[in-house]
Amino acid sequence: MRTHKHSLHHPVLPRNRHQHFRLERWHRISLYLLGGLLTASGLVWLIAHFLLKHSNEFGDSVHPLEHPAMQVHGALAMLTCFAIGTLLQMHIRRAHRAHRNRWSGWSMISVLGWLVLSGYALYYLASEESRGIWSVGHWSIGLALPLLLILHIVLGRRSGA
Q1: pLDDT at 117 exceeding the cut of 80
Q2: Nearest in space to 13 (alpha carbons), one of 93, 105, 103
Q3: pTM over 0.85
């Protein structure tokens, strides 16, 4: 009896095989839910930080929603990093090998990488002098991410048609 040698590398997929890139329904819903909650928690922090501040005789005070919003946002960011990792094998690797949706895919990876880096910097590296710059760099790109995701989905569906 002859056994076949197993390989860790998948054969190159034909470019017209759309079903190899589309995520399963549960996977899409999980990622969209995490992304939506992550964006919402970031928006709650932005609103509390910039719009709901109140002043008293000692100056501006931190709104009570800021800290819990940041805690929720950090926890969701960790879960989202894990969830993005689940895309590496079946979605990102296969689409890249098939030359599909590369521009928006690499843009997504770059933006997500920046958000991880800037989030880490805000938590561990930023000084009081640089915190504002890191913060604006983080939340401005974070607010643009849902638009980039929509573009990535639209372009992916178009290229699969």
Answers
A1: yes
A2: 93
A3: no
